[in-house]
User: Fold this.
Amino acid sequence: MITTMHIPQSVLALVFYALWTIALVLMIGIDRVLLVALGRIKAKDITPGTPHGNNAYWRINRAHMNAAENVGVFAAIVLAGWIAGAETQMFNLLAMIVVAARVIQSLIHISSGSGFAIMMRFSAFGVQLVSEIWMAIIILKVARVF
Assistant:
């Protein structure tokens, strides 16, 4: 029997973040299959951490790695907030902002490697960092650390 329970928006944001990371890896997989099927590369040419494929493919690869590298920090903050009972409206909003900024960062990363795109991508990453730090401060206040 399935029962319903209250899931805070911050936890839903974490699920969406994970799904976005999965979507990026699926994009890589589809691109790899197409590259091999079209004879542009051989399966043995796909080596982790080494640029292979065209620039767009490699940007998807890096966007995925960026998301995968940061999902753990976001998960720690979200889950700590849930456990601490810190999921205020602001906490939940900040969690959604993190996910939106991550998607924007990834899309910019995939679309271009220009200097302007790099600056915009870094700005989106900055929004994520500020939001996560703010979320951590909310948790620390609930815990009466300060």
About this structure: The radius of gyration is 18 Å. The mean pLDDT is 92. Residues 19-142 form a domain with the Four Helix Bundle (Hemerythrin (Met), subunit A) fold (CATH 1.20.120.550). The chain has four helices and no strands.
